[in-house]
Amino acid sequence: MTHAIQHLINNFLSVPRNFRNIQGNSFGFTPFDTNQLRQAQILSDNYFRISRENASDDPIAKVMEQAQQDAQQYDPELVRYALMVWIVHDPEARRRKLKIPPLGQRAPHITVPKLVNATPASGTPASGTPASGTPASGTPANPEPTTTDPPLTNLDWWREDPQLNEHHEHWHIVFPAFPANGVSKDREGENFAFMHRQMLARYDAERIAVGLQPVKPLSDFSERIPESYNPDNDLVYDADNDASTPNAHFTPRSVGKQLTDLAGNGPKISTLMNFRQQLLNGIGKTYGQDDKSANKFGNDLETTLHNTGHVLLTAARDPVFWRWHRHIDEVYSRWQNQQAPYNFSDAPPVVIKSTDIILAWKDKLLDTDKNGSADGWLSYAKQTFGGSNFDADVSSNPVVTNELQTKMKSRQFVWTEDDNSSQVINYLYPREYLYFFRVQNTSNQNVDITIRVFLAPEELVNSRVHWIELDKIKQTLKPNEKAVFSQNCDESVVIRKPAQKTSDEMDKTAITITKREETGGLSGDKEAEAFFCDCGWPFNLLLPRGTKQGFKYKLFVMITDGAKDTVKPKHSNVAPRKCGSLSFCGAQQWDELYPDARRMVRDVTIKLVDNFPDV
């Protein structure tokens, strides 16, 4: 029965390529419009109610029946959004392992990159060797770029990456701008600021690698915007050919356009200015220096200035999306910069040196010990990097590297909705690696620690907002222990689990019906390990692309006190099950606390120390 329901959900959530013309609904839906969000909340709350009240009488089928009725009365996109919020958060839907199909299956026309043959800028080709093979049939002979600004076309492949766009959409489903089933996710406002800042840091890393400057914030609302945007024809719908009216849907934008008031009750530029001024005026008054203010300022920023601006502006495919979010981050920074420097006074009694941070290629480790993956090559590392070698420089070891590598690959996307024609998609992929950390406990007691790993382009290390969080690992050290720890890059706390590595995993539901059958006999922690949740950064974009000649980055590792980092569970003494991306999504349980007591990347994004350490 669950399989049949999943198929029903898949079909209901699928969006035809020419959806708007078929439906005849010209007003469009955005999850950032206040009135539409209010209606979506009413619908999703009703789905939660139906599920609860019919717990013993096939609740999922009854919810789907109601959703189909709602789609006849309301904008089908609004209903789909409300249903997806319900799928993610409803206990019964989660118990039955119901999943939202990937964006590439639900709406390929808004997912598949328009520029399928993206090439790096002159002099800065992608790292690694391009994927070999003959281009698939169906590849457009003359793909049209999304913007008329040539340097920006070199990043079309990144802005239009299907997994990137799905991540952003799914985060806003996991964290809707309203309480889901009567509960708001813990520290949602703080997470909003953190997650989007991380997206910006990664985009800026890609920009400077192709010779562009970091994103300029769109802080002047009267500016004539130099970045154009040319969406794919499948995205364009404008019933009256007037971009100022609310029924405009992904209309093209030429160079020099300005933000304009929307007609009727639509957002006005003056509204944006008022929201911004209210937020800034509240710093030091409404918003103090405490943890609650970190969340409240983020919440208010998201639901006022951010959301209203997104009714006027578009999604991650558009270069201006990033300028808008850099301005949103700029406003959050105005509050955040009031925080005191972090002075490491609560650091645990441990020692780690730069030579204790060891990177190793996974393929090289396989050559060394094909069975090492069972324990993350920890046995090999303890013997090779620990013991009598604990203080040795191991940089000459053949498995060790001081660089990270990526390559551009390609895969075929099949338009199953139409005639099964195929299209080549270019995408980034990292050469897989492991971390090994050597850490010494200088005390005669057990010490819990959190190892936090960050990455930034060398030229941006003094910019607090440009440090990319790569991982954080919790460990326990025995008294006076000289320990060696390992961590596989595909276990990173920022990425979606399980890591989507193959073409099938990227373009199909990560947890397929076949996978569901394979794991049907599991329970408890093993089941959680098999499924996790669908929130998180895509594995293929774990690392910035860099350049073929090599682009310098700094890897920064800091260790915090694990005891002070630990959050007491809300409901029991048993720690909440982790989500796939602990950093971006927190705990699996919707009403559990975020499992890290520290401010989200506070230690890097606030002033760190009065003088930034030499990294």
From TrEMBL:
The superkingdom of the source organism is Eukaryota
Q: Name one GO molecular function term.
A: oxidoreductase activity
Compositionally biased tracts (Polar residues): 119-140
Main localisation: secreted
Query: What are the entry keywords?
Result: Disulfide bond, Metal-binding, Secreted
Name all Tyrosinase copper-binding domain ranges: 318-329
**Which InterPro entries did the record assign?**
Di-copper_centre_dom_sf (IPR008922), Hemocyanin/hexamerin (IPR013788), Hemocyanin/hexamerin_mid_dom (IPR000896), Hemocyanin_C (IPR005203), Hemocyanin_C_sf (IPR037020), Ig_E-set (IPR014756), Tyrosinase_Cu-bd (IPR002227)
Listed GO CC annotations = extracellular region
Cross-referenced SUPFAM superfamilies, in alphabetical order?
A: Di-copper centre-containing domain, E set domains
> Where is it located?
Secreted
Region of interest (Disordered), ranges = 114-151
> What is the protein name for this chain?
2962_t:CDS:1
User: Species name for this entry?
Assistant: Cetraspora pellucida
- What is the taxonomic lineage of the source species? Eukaryota, Fungi, Fungi incertae sedis, Mucoromycota, Glomeromycotina
